[in-house]
Predict the structure.
Amino acid sequence: MKTIDLSKVKYMQFEGIDMRDYPDFCDAFLSYAEIDGRPLTDEELDYINDKHYDFINENVYDSIC
C-alpha cells in the first residue's frame, strides 16, 4: 500500500470513544474519512488505525472539543 498523506484526510468519523478513557482513547478508531472527496477504503482506514495512533488520538480529542 502506498503511504497516505494524513494532511489530506478530511470529514473524519470515529467510533469507540469512551470518555472514561480520556486522554488515551485507546479504543477509538477511525470509521470513515475522505481524501480529495473520495471515501477511504477499509484497507486505508485499517492502515491509519494501525500505524498512526497519534493521528487518531489527536483528531478524536479535536472532535469532542
In short: The chain has one domain: 6-64.
